[in-house]
What does this fold into?
Amino acid sequence: MLTIGKLGAAAGVKVPTIRYYEQIGLLPDAERSTGNQRLYSRAVQDRLAFIRHARELGFPLDAIRDLLGLSDRPDQSCAEVDAIARTQLIAVEGRITRLQALKGELARMVDHCAGGTISDCRVIEVLGNHAHCAADHGRHMPCVSE
Amino acid sequence: MLTIGKLGAAAGVKVPTIRYYEQIGLLPDAERSTGNQRLYSRAVQDRLAFIRHARELGFPLDAIRDLLGLSDRPDQSCAEVDAIARTQLIAVEGRITRLQALKGELARMVDHCAGGTISDCRVIEVLGNHAHCAADHGRHMPCVSE
DNA sequence: CCTAATGTCTCTAGGAACTAGAGGTTCAAG
DNA sequence: CTTGAACCTCTAGTTCCTAGAGACATTAGG
It folds into this structure.
């Protein structure tokens, strides 16, 4: 059994964040030592690692709660998880595309910067170009940039 | 010239968010009509679209402020700009790396989920397992954050 | 065994980036 | 000229943490 500090170090999550996750029900109420300190099993460590990764990758806590809820009821069909994962996959691909455009522009600036000025900075155009958008906000809000 | 509502619709940003961006200095104080309503040029629309995209990609407002600064001061010497661009370039590369890791994991989840039940999916393991991380944050090191 | 350092406890408050609401004003269509 | 949508300011709430205060618990060294 791990103390909260060890757990946090192992999962890369700060101690107050762990207590916060418990408070909002994302982690179960921890067992306590005789001195009232929280103790955690390996299973909780996995759960926390999952939450941490999912957060890092942009899932809101509500979505994470859903995913965890699904894996807490292991006899259900995968359809729902599959749908969530597919949706997220498409969004992630769009993000990567746009980040690569931005990366290209930043790299260009760093290259061209040798001794000159930035009069030709085009970062705004690079990310302003909706052609690189994933489908997500293109559908609801038409891209009116021209 | 656009009203705030039109601008918001064009850029996919809610009206109160635009006023908030003005308040914190991310957008310039808008010109006003005779009736005191905000009016926006095409340049502001591009700037707002940029902010929106950058936010979507997970940049904090401070980083966006830096990025916008690159194009706001086109006559400035390269040293400062170069530093900002390099810093942001590293952040972008880190983001891309982690997103590619996520993409792989989501693809894994979709594969494993095909037609099965959740007990086969092992959702927590897939995202919780550090062995599949491209961005290495081993058990004892906190994940690299930007 | 005692003590000092470190870790943990609860609780409250703050911060980032919005978001929603109240109560009032302005604009544009009929 | 009226009416309803869109706008104004201001305050307060939301999400997801993060930091601090003051007190109790655990552990390594002497």
Helices of chain A lie at 4-11, 15-23, 42-56, 61-72, 79-112, 123-128, 135-140. Chain A touches chain B through 64 residues (CB under 8 Å).
